[in-house]
Design brief:
Number of helices: 5
Order of helices and strands: HHHEEEEHEEHEE
Strand content: 35-45%
Strand order of the largest sheet: 1-2-3-4-8-7-6-5
Number of strands: 8
Length: about 180
């Protein structure tokens, strides 16, 4: 009787674990392994994508006013029925007090991913610093491991201590995007 109960308990525990594994979000997992776990570092992010079997793609990183992009790369990978694209760039952001380093790692998925904003909030462990129900923005310290939320008001202090990052999670009816931008002196 005790042995039967123990076997049933182990079997009951195995179901939620396998169900959780089956519901893993490939876009969020790829973002963590390529963008977050590399600290948004351009060279490390490109290497992580290449090591993960991602292939070169012709997608290019758009530059914006006030940013001089020095390096950029794009990779893509099919995961199930989704196509994931990662865009990585680095350069200098020109501001009134001088130039700061900016590195961007952007992961896009070509299908709806309604979990992204919620995953972002769980990942950061705080309410968003801005956005709306389909777009969340967080300011975090540049640090390995779990994100350390500093809020928009803490960005200047974080920059004085070495830098800060901005995490963005966006979802819509046909796609999803996760961005990690890091800024440092």
């Amino acid at each position: 009787m005790i042995r039967s109960f123990a076997i049933a308990a182990v079997a009951a525990l195995a179901v939620p674990m396998s169900a959780a594994a089956a519901t893993a979000d490939p876009a969020f997992d790829a973002f963590q392994s390529i963008c977050w776990n590399t600290g948004g570092d351009y060279v490390a992010a490109v290497k992580a994508a290449d090591d993960g079997g991602w292939k070169d793609t012709d997608v290019v990183v758009d530059s914006e006013p006030g940013l001089s992009v020095t390096d950029k790369a794009a990779r893509e990978k099919a995961v199930g029925d989704a196509r994931l694209t990662v865009l990585v760039s680095r350069g200098l952001r020109h501001i009134s007090t001088g130039d700061i380093k900016e590195q961007t790692c952007k992961l896009s998925v070509n299908k709806a991913d309604s979990a992204l904003v919620g995953e972002g909030q769980s990942f950061v462990g705080a309410a968003p610093d801005g956005g709306d129900p389909t777009f969340a923005v967080y300011y975090v310290k540049l640090a390995p491991g779990a994100p350390v939320h500093v809020g928009k008001a803490g960005a200047n202090s974080a920059m004085a201590a070495g830098g800060f990052g901005v995490l963005k999670f966006q979802q819509d009816s046909s796609s999803g995007i996760i961005v990690y931008q890091s800024y440092s002196k």
